[in-house]
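Troubleshooting: if your tokenizer reports a length mismatch, compare your output against this known-good record of 154 residues.
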Amino acid sequence: MKPLTGSDNTFGTPREVFDYFNRWYGPFDLDAAANRKNRLVKQYLGQGGKYENALDPAVHWHQLGEKIWLNPPFGRGLGNWVKRAWEEHHRGCRIVMLLPASTGPRWYRDYVYGQEHYWLGRLQYVGGKTGAPWDSMIVILNPPPHFLKRFQRA
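Known-good structure output:
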């Protein structure tokens, strides 16, 4: 997948997209793929955060937050991020992911197909000079049923 500009693929989430899903599925207490400039939650994983490498098996997302926002770097390693989110949601987290809307990759078939998701169309990512040349989607990974009681609204 081509980055928006140059070779950097760490573009920030558009604020209005985050705010909408934070209102309905949050409040998020962890941004799992961020840096100092583009983080959307006080606690984040990534450059300058509590842990530099969110994919390190020693970093347990579910111990850092129950409601997690994830806008991973798009590119060759994207499947690793989606797989990790899938693993963490089985440990009791609700994870809301902003991903490229693509049904062809193996990560889509293995972890996204059949999950709650919303097509967003083409977004203008923070840090991008132009709009993304691909559609985006939000995928919600709700925790397994035995964890759901703590996510019900009062």
